[in-house]
Amino acid sequence: MSTTSLRGRFQWTVVVPVLALALLVATWSNHEQPVILWAIGAALVGAVLAAVHHAEVVAHKVGEPFGSLILAVAVTVIEVGLILMLMSGGGDASSTYARDTVFAAVMITFNGIVGLSLLVGASKHHLVSFNASGTGSALATVVALATVTLVLPRFTTSAAGGAYTAFQLGFAAVASLLLYGAFVFTQTVRHRDFFLPVASDVQGRVTGLLDEDSDGHADPPAAKEAWFSLALLLVALVSVVFLAKLLSPTIEHGVVSAGLPYGVVGVVIAFLVLAPESISAVRNALRDRVQTSLNLAYGSAMASIGLTIPTIAVAMIWMEGPLTLGLDPTQMVLLAVSVVVAMLSIAPGRANTLQGVVHLVLLAAFLVVSIQP
After folding, report:
1. Major location, coarse class (predicted)?
2. Which of 372, 166, 351 is nearest to 260 (CA)?
3. CA distance 270 to 54
4. Each residue of 248-290: pLDDT tens digit?
5. CA dist 40 → 23, 27, 322 (Å)
6. 93: how many CB neighbours lie within 10 A of its CB?
7. Which DSSP category does 210 fall into?
8. Fewer CB atoms inside 10 A, N or C side of the chain?
9. Strands (E), 143-266
10. Cα separation of 106 and 100, whole Å?
């Protein structure tokens, strides 16, 4: 399929990211009017949907697990930029922006994306199957990252208030990059077959890798089309994060006016940033490609920690004020339970709707205690 035919068939996915970027530029310095804010909100939704389409085009071209990796890294880079902009604005809650947003991203991916993917996939296909070895290694890496960056700071004594000293923060940054790099090497080079969609029998037992030539999908797009979609994906993602930045004062004002904890802002931002991956994961689950959905979920959680913390650590050289990374006791309980449930869901290599419901209930519990601690 040529680029011309792509524009003809998916014209809105070409127009929307460009319009969203144009609206961003036009309203960057003047966006206080309600009508403009509604337009920004509509453009934000459109950019999210366009990002999903272009990410799937690129993923179809490069294949798994590279497609999931591209989307996870791209979204996380944008998320880091948004966190840094929010922190640079100062305020009493600036020290916890990174922690609240990263933890919200972990809970949304662990329980939201995983739970919805398992529920939707199993509802349609009775049972869903995946490679427990690959998914389990991804989960183990995320748990190690979360422990080093979000749990340990609450128990160290060299710095008070859930913070790391400069030396400790430097170690956490290096460890995060090392873990993330080791996983990417394993996922894309050493054991790539562990992260490919699998075929299964009627009992959900894995019988081998999915035959990509007989899965009922179109042939991979041409290189020119894939590059075109990659460019539009970047435009859409940039539009998403900066439009969300324009909406953030309104979100913050709404949170304060409703009497909600300031950490809810991080939850809302995480939901906005992770929307493209969530939609893509559900679409893959509907196509009985839950392995891809899990790649997206745990890959996003991993990238959210493994790329965000090192970047924030470097940024703290120039930024003033403390950086609180340590989770509160309630957050640690939710993280621990989520890890245990994830282990039990992954270990069999297959899942039904019950596992999806359990994960979604944990996400609901996270939202409840975020709104009312």
Report:
1. membrane
2. 372
3. 21
4. 777 777 777 777 887 787 788 788 778 878 888 898 899 888 9
5. 7, 9, 32
6. 18
7. -
8. C
9. 198-200, 206-209
10. 10
- The radius of gyration of the chain from alpha carbons, rounded to an integer in Å, stands at 20
Tens digits of residue pLDDT in 56-69? 788 777 766 676 67
CA angle 94, 260, 24 (to 5 degrees): 60
User: Within 10 A of 174 (CB to CB), how many other CB atoms are there?
Assistant: 12
Q: What is the pTM of this model?
A: 0.80
| 194 residue type, one letter | F
Cβ-contact 267, 69 below 8 angstroms: no
pLDDT band at 344 (very low <50, low <70, confident <90, very high): very high
Q: How many Å separate Cα 151 from the centre of its chain?
A: 20
One-letter amino acid at 266 equals G
> Which amino acid appears at position 338 of this protein?
S
Q: SS3 for 325?
A: coil
Alpha-carbon gap, residue 346 to 32, rounded angstroms: 47
The three-state secondary structure class of 225 is helix
Return the domain boundaries, the chain.
3-371
Please state, for a pLDDT cut of 90, what percent of the chain lies above it.
Answer: 28
Burial class (CB in 10 A: 0-12, 13-18, 19+), 183: buried
First to last CA, the chain: 52
In the structure, what pLDDT confidence band is assigned to residue 188 with cuts at 50, 70 and 90?
confident
The pLDDT mean for the chain works out to 82
**CB 357 within 8 Å of CB 119:** yes
